[in-house]
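User: I'm preparing a small set of examples for a lab meeting where we compare how different chains pack in three dimensions. I only have the primary sequence for this one, and I'd like the structure in token form so I can line it up with the others. Please keep the answer compact; I'll paste it straight into my notes.
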Amino acid sequence: MSDKQDCIKFFKALANDERIEIIQLLRKNHEMCAQDVEKCFYLEQSTTSHHLNTLKKAGVIKSRKEGRKVIYSVDDASLKSLWALVSQLVLG
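Assistant: Understood. Below is the structure token output for the 92-residue chain.
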């Protein structure tokens, strides 16, 4: 994928109030399973899954399996890379 496409995917992922709130929640709690994220919002399970997958595909969050649960957290390393890429593309 091109650098521009990565930036577009990143900004599209951030262009949603609920996804921003999920990022803030994960940042505050360090990591959470999908069910706990869902409980914090008035969202359907499928909507929560969609938001988490969108953020993961954009490189904003990461996941790991713990038994039958999927645990999500903010992907700091990926975010730093994305910010550097955005700075390079936008600021030159």
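A couple of notes for your slides: Strands lie at 32-33, 61-66, 69-74. The chain has one domain: 3-91.

User: Perfect, thanks.
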